[in-house]
Each structure stands twice: as structure tokens, then as C-alpha cells.
Amino acid sequence: MxxxxxxxxFASHGTLDQHGFARNRFWAVDEDPPPFPTxxxxxxxxxxxxxxxxxxxxxxPHSFEYRLRIALGPGGDLMLTSRIRNTNSDGKPFSFTFAxxxxxxxxxxxxxxxxxxxxxxxxxxxxxxxxxxxxxEKKRTFVLRKDGLxxxxxxxxxxxxAKAMADFxxxxxxxxxxxxxxxxxxxxxxxxxxxxxxxxxxxxxPSSYCSGQLDPQxxxxxx
Length: 223
Description:
single chain; five-stranded antiparallel sheet; 8% helix
């Protein structure tokens, strides 16, 4: 699984270059992060901090602090928690869109179903808080649990787009699927001092899908 951050702007939904600039910046490690909530003390975690540089303020004239907490549970569950705070001193609000760009390795794209969503290369609005990616051949299901991220994006370049991409193998589309938890339809607006939080938890569970034996609702409910 590969993760990138399409934050401060999703795709071309804004005035910045495609997908914004946060994904292309160096982040700092917070050596003294705030404590974790009590119910997640068993998770190992690291906090990364992103603040605007002088070059950033030339293309997006706002001051902010973006804290990304990456936590790993003992069972392999991965939790990503993003907090973005408006630190403008001029009293101005700012708005942004956001997505976690999560790529999943799959056996064969033709043997994969995204429970509750219909097809590839599409934006879904007001989606459920839980989404399941069911890989029939590998008998494995990825479960995405999200909070503060009402939308979802499903993407696979398929054969023609894959051949046109310089950094993508012609047949690599067969073994990947991108499902993104996102805030796309309505941009998030923060006044100075306000903070937004978006969280995504990813886990993999075994499944025995065969001729309808797997009930996706039971997977989503944790049964």
C-alpha cells in the first residue's frame, strides 16, 4: 500500500497546481508531540509537521500548521490523522480541499469490488464512514474507516491511460486500485485559530469470498 497526501487542494479543485503543494514538501518530525488519546496508547506513532515556506506563501498567501500523525497498531492497522490550523495573523480565513491518496495492491483489478461504490475514476459524495475493498482472488478485504472526510474517490487509469503515463507500466493498472477518503464537494473553511481534523484508519482482514459467501456488511460492521 502506498500513501500520498493530496492536501490543501484536491486535483484541480482550486487555484494551485494539480493536487496542491503539501505532497511535494519536506516535513519536520515533532520530537515532543502531544499525548495520544487513552484508547490508543498501544499504537506506535510519529507526528510530522508542515508549515509554509516563503516560496509557499507566494503561491498560497496564508499561514497554517499541518500536523499529520501516523500511527501503527499491534495488529497492523494504520491510522492517519490530519490536523490543519489557520495561523494567519491578518484575520483572514482560508479554504482548502483534501484527500488521502491511498494506493492498494490487488491481485487483479477485474477480481476486485469496492463495496458501496460502483466503478473506477469517479468522485463519490457523502459516502459511508466505512468502505470495503474486496479482493476475491487474494481472499483479502481492505477496510477503510474515515472521519471528517465525507467524500471518496476511486481511481484506476485502465489500459489506455496507463500506456500514456511515463511513470506507469502498461500493465500495472491490473494490480492496483486507488481509493481516497476526501473532502471535495465542499471546501473546508477555517478562520484564524480554527482547526480541522480528518482521520483515516486502514486495516486488512481475511475474507472467503466465493460465489457470494462473503457478506460485505458483516465485514464493514467488524463481524
